[in-house]
Amino acid sequence: MSAPSVSFDAVLFDCDGVLVDSEPITQGVLRDMLEEAGWAMTQEECMRLFVGKMVRQERALIESRTGQPLTDDWMAAFYQRRNQRLQAELQAIEGALAAVAAAHAHAGGRIACASGADRHKVEFQLDMAGLRPYFENRVFSGHDMPRGKPAPDVYLAAAAHLSAAPARCLVIEDTPTGVTAGVAAGAEVWAYCPLPEAGARLRAAGAARLFGHMDEVALALGSLPGRPSARAGLR
């Protein structure tokens, strides 16, 4: 990824799949629980259907495939099992800390985490990854918004909190659903794409840039220790 041609007033990060490697864990729990409810699928199928989305948004699909209502008790059990697995297995995405630090320096502290997940999950994942201090009081959950991603609500709320015009914000995402939300908010969106075969869908959703490692974000927004700074290219 080359250095951006403009600077940004704020940088807004998705969480799952961008800052922490949580999606395989979460989707594994969801796949298991859906199979227990009568809907068997592979991990890959579950990832394709549900990554980047709130489970409740897919209520009609789940109920049609399981033949059972998606109850509050089922959701509570899902959250409990998911959180237990995350606490045991979660790791930060490689290079995420450097990317967040560079974004913080680039935007003068005006960064936020804007996730489609519930606030408790986002905050404890940031704690586990050692990223929470960068996002204190700047965590936004789609569960708290009128609409979740792919609607732009969570990104618009984060930009407003930072007093940044959406068009002057950079969004870092990893799914077509999230990219669509960032583009709908009016922001420039860069997409983390470690698997090249996912690039076409991210581009189609409106991603302006693709990158395969979070170090590339750090390099583009500032500099990494021992590497040349890209800041001179920002104007």
Radius of gyration: 17 Å
Strand count: 6
Order of helices and strands: EHHHHHEHEHEHEHEH
Report the total helices. Answer: 10
Main sheet? Answer: 6 strands, parallel
Strand order of the largest sheet: 3-2-1-4-5-6
Low-confidence segments, given as residue ranges, are 223-235
Global shape: globular
Report on the structure:
By secondary structure, the chain is an alpha/beta fold. The chain contains ten helices and six strands; from the N terminus they run βαααααβαβαβαβαβα. Strands 3-2-1-4-5-6 form a six-stranded parallel β-sheet, with helices on both faces. α6 links the parallel β2 and β3. α1 packs across α2 and α8 packs parallel to α9. The radius of gyration is 17 Å and the shape is globular. The relative contact order is 0.19. The C terminus is likely disordered.
Which SSEs are present, and which pair or pack?
Layout: E1 10-13, H1 23-36, H2 43-50, H3 59-66, H4 72-89, H5 96-106, E2 111-115, H6 119-128, E3 139-141, H7 153-161, E4 169-173, H8 176-185, E5 188-192, H9 199-205, E6 209-211, H10 215-221
Which characteristics define this entry?
11% strand; 235 residues; alpha/beta; single chain; disordered C terminus; 6-stranded parallel beta sheet
TL;DR?
The protein has 235 residues and is of the alpha/beta class. The chain is 43% helix and 11% strand.
